[in-house]
User: Which sequence fits this backbone?
């Protein structure tokens, strides 16, 4: 019985030594590099159990294959119009080529240092092609932040993949700040831009107002002219109609027509308070004369 226990214990000891000394496990979301005396023997990109020689013959280095976040911190750079600005950016990345990553970077902690230096160099290069107004301006049409970040991402991604085996997923500007010595000049520039915009809007308003007033005056003059023409036409037709009516009335009874016209003339010439001294036989009042 005791002999059996010894054999079982020995077998367990051998199994433990084998598991911890001759094998290793790669977890899901991880990569592993197996090196023998500094030379890479195997790259493991799939989760599972793998065999190896015990230390110090072979060494296993694992990397997190999941997406990583790297904050560049506050770095000062110069724009094309010689303005100092402080840009804080962040990079989302993951290990794409574990062998290249192991040979050039070593581990995840070193990757942040390499990426931070690369990002700073790219920021300086990209911002050297843009003026400050591409980042900060009252004119929204001059803002080029999306264009700048796309260019930064392209340059960082190409360099990181070829040199470090790192795939860059995203590059974004997190914060834009200005040094104290540039703040006043930027504020003055923004005020000048806003005043320029106000002047432009006022000029456009006056121009549009003058155009609207001119169009309204022309339209009003046309309406008045058309009204006068129409009124003259109506008056002419009315006078013609009146003449026709008078002519028909005269033809029907000339004496009555003349008599009624004289009465109308007399009625229009005097009122209740009118005093007229004249011969009864004068024209237009001869109807008052007695036989």
Assistant:
């Amino acid at each position: 019985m005791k002999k059996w226990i010894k054999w079982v214990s020995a077998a367990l000891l051998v199994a433990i030594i084998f598991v911890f000394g001759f094998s290793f496990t790669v977890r899901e979301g991880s990569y592993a590099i197996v090196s023998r005396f500094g030379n890479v023997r195997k790259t493991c990109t799939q989760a599972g159990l793998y065999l190896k020689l015990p230390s110090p013959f072979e060494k296993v280095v694992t990397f997190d294959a999941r997406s990583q976040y790297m904050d560049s911190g506050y770095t000062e750079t110069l724009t094309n119009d010689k303005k100092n600005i402080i840009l804080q950016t962040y990079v989302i990345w993951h290990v794409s080529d574990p062998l290249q990553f192991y040979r050039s970077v070593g581990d995840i902690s070193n990757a942040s240092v390499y990426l931070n230096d690369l990002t700073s160099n790219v920021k300086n290069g990209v911002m050297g092609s843009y003026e400050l107004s591409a980042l900060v301006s009252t004119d929204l049409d001059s803002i080029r932040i999306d264009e700048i970040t796309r260019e930064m991402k392209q340059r960082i991604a190409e360099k990181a993949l070829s040199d470090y085996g790192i795939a860059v997923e995203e590059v974004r500007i997190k914060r834009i700040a200005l040094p104290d010595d540039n703040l006043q000049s930027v504020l003055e520039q923004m005020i000048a831009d806003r005043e320029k915009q106000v002047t432009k809007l006022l000029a456009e308003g006056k121009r549009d107002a003058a155009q609207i007033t001119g169009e309204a005056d022309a339209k009003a003059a046309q309406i008045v002219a058309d009204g006068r023409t129409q009124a003259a036409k109506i008056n002419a037709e009315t006078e013609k109609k009146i003449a026709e009516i008078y002519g028909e009335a005269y033809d029907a009874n000339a004496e009555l027509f003349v008599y009624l016209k004289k009465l109308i003339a007399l009625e229009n010439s005097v009122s209740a308070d009118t005093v007229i001294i004249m011969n009864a036989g004068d024209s237009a009042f001869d109807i008052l004369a007695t036989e």
